[in-house]
Fold this protein.
Amino acid sequence: MQIQTPDWVKHAVFYQIFPDRFARSQHSRQSFLNNTNLEAWDSPPTQQGYKGGDLWGVLEKLDYIQSLGVTAIYFTPIFQSASNHRYHTHDYYQVDPILGGNQAFRELLDAAHARNMKIVLDGVFNHSSRGFFFFHDVLENGSNSPWVDWFKIEGWPLSPYDDKLPPNYGAWAGVRSLPIFNHDNPDVQEYLMEIAEYWIKFGIDGWRLDVPFDIKTPGFWQEFRQRVKAINSDAYIVGEVWSDARQWLDGTQFDGVMNYLFNEATIAFAVGDRVVLKHVQCRDYYPYPAIDAAGYAAKIEALLALYPWEIQLTQLNLLGSHDTSRIITIADSDQSSVELCVLLLLTFPGPPSIYYGDEVGLAGEIDPDCRRVFPTESDWNQAILNTHKQLISLRHNYPALRIGNYQVLYAKATVYVFARTLENEELIIAVNAGNEPMSVNVDCRLLQNQPDQILFGNGEIAWNSNNLGLTIPPQTGLILG
């Protein structure tokens, strides 16, 4: 079977937004939410408090987002929900009124598309919430509810709030506010498929799927793909899978997954022993222990061998998300480590995903702290921002950085060198993750050209026949083109 993935994704740069925290509209809008009980915008985030970020605010920030070179936005959930993160869905057909409702999303989607920017939404189809109408009917009417078979009822009475009693229904991760759907029920399947179709018809450009591995009903994700792609064959379907995802990446289900395998290898190499373990040990990825260049090469080559190339080009690569500590916090505020990670991210096959605020050095420990509000400009780290802008621009300018072959040329001690090649376009990327300057000779006989222009970073280069002599300052990298 020939695997097909959306071409636009291979060339995209994604920006992940947690809507409650990115931007609050600067314009007063006709609304019933004028006296809402919100936390102070610049106070530390909490598990249950709302900051009041909205989609109007994102609309007003599109100039900034586009100035980064971003071409696609992935939103964490935006549907009506009784939580600031909105993974507790109340109504899959209504954008949360605090975000501006369906009207705000319509205007944002149209404005983004006018700029040739794509929008991908978060689909939470494993579980709903105890405020979801169908589950609420079960709470009100017990075994008489028409919807009783939509959930995994284990006994009566149900206990949605009292921790002293068993909930008596399947709940995601044991959290009783998150009742799990019974996906074996054909009516549930049809309901969820129609939601996916509705928003694709509305105009969204794809779905990011929350905990898709928890839906074990045979054929569910195959049908999901068929029905979404029947409406828009270019829609992007990306799953939240933190580990080896081969069973979902066979061409019949997802186009890619959130590539935490890239994340963990890159942080373990580029940040190394500077990783603050308490910020990473409570999550399902392992950017530790530190690895050297040879260890990094082994992990990257194994990762690139894991999936078909067509899938590699639509993996969603990231350094952090709403589920991880911020990269600068993991790196103990070491700016050079962060910039090295960004260099490796922006030169890897598959679209990079930047978690809002990472590009300006926003800090944050594990959630809710990693979900801080986007900082004011006076608090931006301009050097990290400039690094993002430079590298995103280079990625757009050189197709080899997006869809070219990836070939490791050298990996010893702290120095890692690789090439991205596409026909006669060849770029060499060299990284020194160590604390000392390093001089190395790299055998480049497999390359057609001898790129000698430093497009990014600094160092000394000298070609001698097919050997490239490199001197790279500590904790820096460069791109030759």
Notes: The longest strand covers residues 405-412. The chain has two domains: 7-126+183-397, 404-480.
